[in-house]
Amino acid sequence: MIGLLSSTVALTGCGVPITGPWDDPAKQIVADPATYSSERMKVGNLSRSVREKLPQPGTEALGFKTLKVSASLHTEGAEGKSTDSEVESTYINDQDDGFVRGITHQTRNGLPYFFSLDLTYRGLAPFIEQSGMTTALRLPGLERAREIKEWPADVRNVPEHGTFTFEWESMYYFGSSLQMSRRVTCTSGDNYPASRFMPQVPGQAVDMTCTFFNKNGIETRREKLVYLRTYGIALTVELTQASAKSTVQYKTLVAE
Fold first, then answer.
1. pTM of the model as a whole
2. Which residues are within 8 A (CB) of 39 and not within 5 positions of it... i.e. 6 or more apart?
């Protein structure tokens, strides 16, 4: 999963003012996203009842501590307007439990445009999210899982031709709070050499499609991803929503 500008920005823009020594409140995130992420986007910030249903530290080793990618992003809007931007994302594995902190910056015409922070399970399902325009005057809203309703068995192995579903309830905080229902169903295809995705990537990869639904069972977005087995993370290559369709062309990948 990669943090991309989406129709949710209209909602996340309804954040609340920040107090503190910032001329522009969004600078609290933009100026030092690594520190902000380490404080806000961590499993320890989820409730005990949620954490008890998640993989425990040390039980799901990933093939990296930090993974950095850069990419070009092309978006076709529903009204026919297209835009191009550049994306840089950093994924951080804190405790080998399958969860990854993501930090994404998006630029247009060389200027900062959009940021996204999240905590996902292997890049597939987001359990904490916060994103917004770089020039926002208010801190964007934050969405955090509050109850796990379905967790697929043995999902860590992402079987070929498999189908699995994550389902949870979350709270969206933007001054007041709003309860939201989330469900993601993912399907996988055939294994193939990961070098077909990027020449320097070792091991195997598998293409995936993850479809997101709201509480009424209506599809809200669909992502096509490449799951890199050596690293244990999925990277988005296409995102489709009612408002736009975005495609991602990866340029660099560095794992440490």
1. 0.89
2. none
